[in-house]
Each structure stands twice: as C-alpha cells, then as structure tokens.
C-alpha cells in the first residue's frame, strides 16, 4: 500500500520541493501532509524505502513551532522535537542499512537521504553525527555503480572525521570499510586492503577480535584476495569469519534453548549473516573436495545458517540447513559438531511443531 496522491493546487507557504530530488513538487502525502514529491514515481520510491515507517513521525518535526507563553513550555517542546528527530535518524539509518544488506541499493537511497537531512537539521551541517548518513549514501552508490558520487560522500565523511579528534572508533572502522569497498570496486586492491586492515583494527578495539563486526572486515579482505586468486589466504580469512559467527550464534542459541532467554538477531544482523555465511558456503561447495577440512567447514557453515534461521523463527529453513549440517558433520572423523547439531534439530522441530 502506498501513500495517497494529493495534487498541490496552489501550495501556500514556501515553495514545496520534492523529498527525493528537491525539484518543484506537485504532489503531497495525504497521510502526513508535510512531505512533497515531484511525481508519483518518487512518492512510491520514498514510501517503499522509509516513508511508510516514519510518515506520522515527520509531522511534529516539520510543523511550524506553536507559540508558547512560558519558557518551560518552549523548552519542553524543543526537547520533544529533538527526541523525535533522534528517533527519525535512528530509524532511517536502520532501514537504509537493512536495504543495503539485502543488496537493494536503490531502495536504500531515500532512507539514507532522510537520515542525512534530519541529522543536518538536528546537529548542523558540519557535525560528526552526519558521518553515518554519508557512509550509507556512499555504500549505496558503490552498489549502484556510481563510484564518483560515492567518493564525494566519503570525502565529506573523511574530512569530518579528520577534524574530530575524539571521533569514535566505530565511525572510523565504518569509514575505512567504505573506503575499502570503493577502492575494491575501482580496481585498487592495495588501497582496498590497507583500508580493510584499518577497519579490522578499529573494529577489534571496539568490539573484540572475535566479534562478528570485526570479522566483516576479514570477509571483505578475502574478496580482494579472491580476485587475485590467493585462495590459501581466502580460506584462512573465511575460517576466522566462520569461527566468529559460529561462536556468536552458539551463545545466542544456548541462551535460547537452555536458559529460555528470548534473544533474537536484529534485522541487519540477520541479513548480514545470511549474505556472509551463504557466500562462504557457496565458495566451499565450488571447491568440490572431499577433504576433512572442507567437510568440517561446510558442516560449520550449515550449522551457523540453521542457528541463524532458528533465531529468526524460520523453522523450515532452520531444519533444512540443520539436516544438511548433520549429514556433513557425520562425514568428518571429528564429530564435535554432531551433538550440537542434533540438539538444535530436536529443539527446532519441537518449535516448528508447536507453531503449526
């Protein structure tokens, strides 16, 4: 369902501009009344990407401030608007990131643009809080094959980080990850690897060496080495990534099964895990070897995917990957994975039966 179309006959107030392209607007969202578009295509694109989730949240932020006699009332109103702005920034950033992990870069753009626009209104045009939005826009444009636009956004992000000495390691790791992706796309592997190494350094400082955040840098480094056909290095890096995800998911599943702690993955984590683990599993299957190491790696990745979909509540997928994992684990002399996989299958089958 999309927002209804409302042609602007003689718009009063200021000149109305399109939410996506800032050209003169002729359509208005009838649900919020504060968002405008140049044509139906841009309205539908914005609705799909982010507007359907934030439509009513935009009303207080974009409505003229009412007059208040008392200073306490004015202060309260400003605090409420600031809270709404921060919620909009967080929600639009999360949505853009989810679209990107699903590989839908075009859909990510409106959410990322909204994130940048609200961040500018909230924090000013040169604040470090704008960096996450710049990085999202850069990543989307890399995915869409527009490296020059991505470079512009990354230059803004890099300049902002450089002039902010106390900038967090989180932003620095994300900046280097995006720079690495840009250089990987533009066939500069040395620069890409240098930035991915910096990415891993800052991420490990913030999250630890075994974190699934840190291992994302290893996964991207592996993609560079794979283009150079350095498969020994690729396999070593993939092993680090698989171990990190297996450890992370095993802890979540143990809490869920044994302690009844209802822990789930965020949508972004689920998308990243699915993309990363599936990509590595396909690489393992392409190798098509019967070595014990290859069988163990396949079993571990399949076990990860089974746990991932169990945590997401997708029992059919969880059981499919779990049964495949069990077959692979039983082909390996080291049966350390067999027990946990069988335990997971029993639990997932019970949950599947209960929900049907």
UniProtKB/TrEMBL annotation:
SUPFAM superfamilies: HIT/MYND zinc finger-like, TPR-like
Pfam families reported for this sequence: zf-MYND (PF01753)
Coiled coil: 67-94
The organism's place on the tree of life at top rank: Eukaryota
Ranges where the MYND-type domain occurs: 18-55
A GO MF term: zinc ion binding
Keyword Zinc-finger: yes
Swiss-Prot/TrEMBL keywords: Coiled coil, Metal-binding, Zinc, Zinc-finger
Parts of the chain that traverse the membrane: none
Protein name as catalogued: Zinc finger MYND domain-containing protein 12
Species of origin: Clupea harengus
Chain's gene name: zmynd12
